[in-house]
Amino acid sequence: MKKVFTLLPIVAVMAACSSTPKDDYDKRAAAIESKREAAVEKSLSKAPSWMTELPSSNNAVYANGSAVSGDMSMADYKAKLFAYGKICMAAGGKVSQQAKVFMQDTTDASYETSELAIRSLCPEVDITGVETKEIKRIAEGSRYRSYVLVALPTGDANTLQKRKDTLKLEKRAALRSAEAFKELENQ
């Protein structure tokens, strides 16, 4: 009987140490969810106004993009790619996207895994002269979020495109003049 009384406190202490009340897990899960919500709220509240309302101009097309990465340059690069894709689409280009999404819902939780591959090709749309107008970066935990505003000047405002078109015309004229002189010599 003495052995039972000796073992009883030891077993009780071990049982108490090995189990954590459910409330601790609930508090931990709630803290994680609260942290996620705060990060989303921060990214929305810190977003520049041009993320929801693009500037307008008769001489330019604007687009924006946002991305996050552990590397600041990669966050900028990805945000610009999203913005360039929007410029391309606005000008009549095509973007190929492939997405995979798996979602599972249970009574207690939802689980999602997603993958997105984007291939932006604008072979029929020339975005020469696109300019980065603004970049804003914020920290999201240990990652960088970049917001990017780009503009594609149109018409006479796009000096790079005008120069490219002029060079193309000069090259075409040089080729055509050589052909025209050959035609004269052959007569």
What attributes does this structure have?
alpha+beta; 5 strands; three-stranded antiparallel beta sheet; 187 residues; two-stranded antiparallel sheet; 47% helix; single chain; 4 helices
Characterization of the model:
The chain has a domain at 155-187. The model has no long low-confidence stretch (mean pLDDT 78). Helices cover 47% and strands 29% of the residues. The longest helix is centred in the C-terminal third of the chain and has 27 residues, at 159-185. It is α+β, with helices and mostly antiparallel strands and 187 residues long. A hairpin with a 2-residue loop joins strand 4 and strand 5. It has helices at residues 2-18, 22-45, 72-90, 159-185; strands at residues 60-69, 94-105, 110-121, 131-140, 143-153. It starts with a helix and ends with a helix. It is elongated, with a radius of gyration of 30 Å. It is built from 4 helices and 5 strands, in the order ααβαββββα. The strands form 2 sheets. Strands 1-5-4 form a 3-stranded antiparallel beta sheet, sandwiched between helices. Strands 2-3 form a two-stranded antiparallel ribbon.
Q: Short description, anyone?
A:
This protein has 187 residues and is an alpha+beta fold.
Question: Helices and strands in order, then pairings?
Answer:
Elements: H1 2-18, H2 22-45, E1 60-69, H3 72-90, E2 94-105, E3 110-121, E4 131-140, E5 143-153, H4 159-185
Antiparallel strand pairs: 1-5, 2-3, 4-5
Q: Spatial order of the strands in the main sheet?
A: 1-5-4
The tally of helices reads 4
State the share of residues found in helices, binned by percent. Answer: 40-55%
**Strand content of the residues, in percent?**
25-35%
* Broad shape: elongated
Unreliable segments of 5+ consecutive residues = none
Number of strands: 5
Mean pLDDT: 78
Order of helices and strands: HHEHEEEEH
**Sheet with most strands:** 3 strands, antiparallel
Radius of gyration: 30 Å
Distance between the termini: 128 Å
Structural class: alpha+beta
